[in-house]
Amino acid sequence: MSTTSLKVYISDGDGNSVTINGMDSASSDGLCCTFDGIEGWYSAPDAKVTQTEQQTGNGAYDVPSSDVLYAARTVVIHLIALDETRAGVVYAMDKLGAMHGKIVTIRVVDARFDTYIDHAYIDVKWGSNRYETASVGTLTIVCPRPMRLSSQQITATMVPTTGNGGGMVFDSGVLHWPISFGSGAVRSNNVCTINNSGTFMSDVIITASGNMPSGLTITNVSDGTQLAYSGIVSSVPLVLDSRTQTATIGGVDVSRNLTQRHFPTIPAGGSITLTLITSGTGSVTATTHDTYI
Fold first, then answer.
1. Do residues 159 and 188 touch, judged by C-beta distance below 8 A?
2. Residues 196, 267: contact at Cβ < 8 Å?
3. For residue 3, what pLDDT is reported?
4. How far apart are CA 144 and CA 280, in angstroms?
5. pLDDT per position as a tens digit, 184-202
6. Beta-bridge partner residues of 240
7. Confidence (pTM)
C-alpha cells in the first residue's frame, strides 16, 4: 500500500507524543514507515462467534447479529528511525521506546480518514543490523478496544422543558466539533437527533449537569426504550456511558440509581432521536463518534 499520505500519532496520558510519517520522509521525531506501511488498521479483528452445528441438517444454526462480536485489534507498523547521525537514530528509537509500559492512544490520518483508538499499549522491536543513519523496526500496538473512532466528536444538546438550560445551546439537531455557528444560534429543546456515519454501531455518552432534583429519563424514540436515573443531578456532571453501561459522577460509580438501563447506541450509517424528561435547569449532551471496525 502507498503510505505517502499516512501519518500516525501516538500519545500517552502524560502529554508525550510521537509522530510517524509515511514513507515520503521522516517526521520531526525521526520516524517514518517502510513500504510495508501499517497492518491491521483497516482489517477487521478476529470474530468471536460460537456456532452450533446442525445434527440432522447441513451447516450450522443461524447466528443472530447480536452474537457477532470481535476480539482485540492488533496493529503492526513497519518503520525506520532515520537521522544523519547515529546519536539521532538512537534518540528516535528511545523516544518511541519511552511509550512502553503506558496506556496510549493511536491516531491514524490517511487520505479521507482520521480515526483513533485509545486505551492501547505498544511493543517495539528493532532489527539487529546496526547502521549509522538508520534502524529498521516493528511497532506492535495492541488495542483491547477494537473500534476505530472518528477524531471529530459529534454532539447534540437537550434542555429541560421547565428550564432555560442556563445558557445558549444550538437547535441544529447534530453539532460537530469544532462548532460551526451556521446561520445563527437559537434555543434548543428536549429533543435531539444524533447520527453515526461509520460502518459499525457507535456508543453514546450522555452528560447531564445543572439542577435536576428528580433525576432524568432519556427515551430513545427509535425503539421506545428508556434510560432513567433517579438520583439528583447537580453541577457535578452525571455521565451515562453506553459502552460500559454505567453511570458515574466525579468518577464515582452511581449505577445503583439507574431504574431503566437501556443505554442508547447508534446503528452503522444511521441515527437515533432522543427525548429528555426531567424538571429543573441545566443541559444534557449526547456525544458519539463515527465508528468503524
1. yes
2. yes
3. 54
4. 40
5. 333 458 999 999 999 999 9
6. 206, 247
7. 0.83
Q: In 10 A of CB 252, how many CB atoms?
A: 8
Per-residue pLDDT tens for 34-72?
988 899 999 999 999 988 999 988 999 998 888 889 999
CA dist 57 and 266 (Å) reads 36
- Contact status, residue 292 vs residue 148, Cβ threshold 8 Å: yes
Give backbone dihedrals phi and psi of 66, rounded to 5 degrees, phi first: -65, -20
Beta carbons of 195 and 265 less than 8 angstroms apart: no
Cβ neighbors of 260 (< 8 A, separation 6 or more) are 217, 225, 226, 227, 228
User: Residue 134 is inside which H or E element, if any?
Assistant: strand 134-143
Instruction: Report the pLDDT value the prediction gives residue 45, as an integer from 0 to 100.
Output: 93
**Pick from 251, 230, 233: which is nearest to 241 by CA?**
251
Length of the chain: 293
- Are 142 and 74 within 8 A, CB to CB? yes
Q: How do residues 141-161 score in pLDDT, each as one tens digit?
A: 999 999 999 999 999 999 997
216: β partners: 229
Neighbour count for residue 3 (Cβ, 10 Å): 22
In angstroms, the CA 150 to CA 91 distance is 31
Whole-number average pLDDT of the chain: 88
Under a CB-based contact definition with an 8 Å cutoff, are residues 242 and 205 in contact? yes
